[in-house]
Structures are given as structure tokens and as C-alpha cells.
Amino acid sequence: MKKMKLLALAAAALFAGSVAAAPQVGQPAPAFTVKDSTGQVHSLQDFAGKNVVLEWTNHDCPFVVKHYNGNMQQLQKTYTEQDVVWLSVISSKPGSQGHIDQAKSDELTTSRGAAPTAVIFDEDGVMGKAYDARTTPHMYVIDKAGILQYMGGIDSIPSAKVEDIANATPYLANATKAVIAGQTPDPAVTRPYGCSVKY
Prior knowledge:
Blueprint: H1 2-21, E1 33-36, E2 41-43, E3 52-56, H2 62-67, H3 71-80, E4 85-90, H4 102-112, E5 118-121, H5 126-130, E6 135-136, E7 139-142, E8 148-152, H6 171-180, E9 195-196
Parallel strand pairs: 3-4, 4-5
Antiparallel strand pairs: 1-2, 1-5, 3-7, 6-9, 7-8
């Protein structure tokens, strides 16, 4: 009995540790150092003084396809024109759905008319797990001071239907506008939806 109690306490401590390790809105965003599709290295500290949007993506995911019907590209253009750094993050491991090489990444960016600042590769999943990125898309907004201000869904309707975009609450857009204006997003945390990240 005593042994079982100790095991339960150990499990609870491990669980508490994993919860504590998850990113928290209002706290510094997890640091990262990753390469983009051109081989250039990017670190979060490189973007000090700029607002940053992180978008977890997988071009084969129907929920990503939905938003790349024009919505994601428009968001990218709108906010990069306002000096926001937009990083599209691919955490699919080699051999899994959504894993692509640098040439394919550039081809997709061009063919879809996408406009991120960079497409970055996280094949080992270190960055994705640091952010607790669970779905594609999963969206994050980091302010100029490096503080995580928003994490969650791109909008409020968890479907793969393009026609639902117009009727959804645009969580990511609202959060980004708030951060640009120096305000706190409300809501600051929402439930992400999409395909699971293929770690």
C-alpha cells in the first residue's frame, strides 16, 4: 500500500512537472533556434523588438488546406505588412505526413501565394514540444518583449469547411491586432483544432 502511494505521488509530481513546462500566456515565450527553407538559422532572440506569429502547419492536413484557400495567405500579408514576423513551422518528422524538404517548401509557398517571413523546420520536434503545439494549425502570438500573448486556434469553428471561415470568430486575427496595439488579447488562450502534429 505504501509503495502504491509513493508511486502515485511520483506520478503526480511528474505530471505537475510536465504541466509547469508548458508555455504560459503572459510569460516569456520558449526560446528556439531553427533553420528555414533557405538554410538560414533563426532564433527567437533575433526578433526582439518585433511582434511574432507562429503557425504550425502541415500542407496535407485538411484543416490547413481549408485555411490555405486564401485565409492564411491574407493573414500573412496583412500582418507582415505591419512589420510582424510570421514563421510557418513544420514539425512533421521524416517519413510522416506533412514532412517536406526545403525545395518542396519553397514550391508550396510560391504555388499557394503564401507570404510568411520564413518557413522553418523542426524535424526533431524540440520547438513544437516546447510550445506544446498539438495541431495544424496551432497559432501563437509573441509580443515585442518576447512575451507569449496568445496561443490556440486560428478561429472558433473547428471544421475543414472553407465556408465556415466567414462565420467564425477570428481568434488569431483579433489577438494579433490587440498585440500590435499594445493590448492584451481576449481571449488569450483558445482551443486549437486540426490534425495532430506528426512528431
